[in-house]
Amino acid sequence: MSNGFLEYLRHQEDFTWRELLGSLEKMNMLFGPRDDVYWLAMPDKRKILFISSSCEQLYGLPPATFYHDGDVWSKVSHPDDRAKAEEKWVASSNAEANTQTYRIINQRDGSVRWVLERTSLVLGQAGDIKLMSGFVTDITEEKRNGDQLRLAEQVYAAIEQAMLVTDAEFAIRFVNPAFTNITGHSAEVIGQPLQTLYAGYYDAWFYEVVKTGIEESGEWRGRVRWRRKNGSVHVRPTTVRPVHAPEGEIVFYLFLFSGPFRGTAYVEAMKDDLKLAREVQKRVLSKPLSTNGIGIAGTYIPSQELGGDMYAWYPIDQQRYGIFLMDVMGHGAAASLICMSVRSLLNGIIRKGIVPKEVFRELNRHMHQLYHENGGMTYYFTAVYVLVDVKKRTIEYASAGHPPGFLFQPDGTVAELDRGCAPIGLLPRLFIDSGRLHYEPGATLVLYSDGVIEGGAGSIRQNIGEFRDALAPYVSLDERALLAHLRRHFAQKGPLPDDFSAVVAKLR
């Protein structure tokens, strides 16, 4: 219990305050082991009188921090949601409960969490506000599940392949718009047995054949006579795949229908969409940055329409800058989507100024939550992150399975950034080793993807050495001129076997 609350109680004549004190102590015992947090405050003084010890689990801070820091709500709130968190102090004279959701940042592990906060007021006899109470619940999991469900619904509706879903008893549960376009059937068939949609003699044996095929090979493929809503019949190659519950039993069957070739117009439209996606991917790459202490620029050439490389940098404060480069294992739309997913997360992580180890741990947690929960995906990426302090003239870095970057000193010596960990997303838990280097004014930092060193005649280690030696005569150039030299150098080699990206930072 806070000393502030005890002092407040000493000035109260009504014994009910002392009863409230005892109740709050009981609530502290009740809510301490849980994620829910209960608090009591004087809004006119922005002072927390009581907060349950469960705040340490949710916020990563002990109760004492809340008692001694009136601005703690703003500090733990996500930068984009601080205004919502501050609204609790702007109390009106009505005692109605107020409910809102916003994001906080756990100060212990850096994780972003969604919370639901309910606040209410305690009014005096004159209608003035005496106290404010709040109840905070962690809804991160519910929010993530809701977002994933909405995304799944949008993908299900937008996908151009016709599909329907049945339950384990082959009763229809969902049909997507593409299925409606082909068959004419829509929501009116939901709840109906599957046999109402196919023509010819199909009985229980059909389901047994499907189940047997799934048991033997994981899915069933065949040609089925389906009946359109207008009564006409069409034969369509069909794939049936099971959807399992966590316990292992089949809860849904997914029916996929192969569609006819759509012709040149459709292919051209897909090409246009890929070109647009490529332009979007390029536009999220950080623009060149130049200050008195540092100049940063990058270049990126994908080997296909969509690639898996991405770089970004952020000024953290007046003296620190975070530089990040990643390479998703693979190409095409999947690699590009993972890049966009990570890019959306970086801003909140790096601007907090946390060290490379924490950046990588948060990204690894992100990859496993989004891409490995069902155990069927193996998406991961290599990365290098460098935290530059232009006042101390130091860099702190970590490399997650990425080719080692180079720090060229003005005296001609070169240090490789080769300390780190396994690629991000490959393992549930990372054991990270970071490095720290001092630099002299005029040093040059070069980061690059493995597209730079692949395809050579020698080993990877030899190619790294050759690339380092090829860079050395040109590191006196400014960042943009050095990158232009790199682009010309690799353009002469013809088509790239992999995406090519590089970041150059001149440390002044």
Automatic annotation (TrEMBL):
One Pfam assignment: PAS_3
PAC domain mapped to chain residues: 98-151
Classification via NCBIfam families: sensory_box
SUPFAM superfamilies, per database record: PP2C-like, PYP-like sensor domain (PAS domain)
Protein name per the record: PAS sensor protein
Organism, scientific name: Geobacillus genomosp. 3
Keywords (A to Z) from UniProt: Hydrolase
GO molecular function, one term: phosphatase activity
Source taxonomy: Bacteria, Bacillati, Bacillota, Bacilli, Bacillales
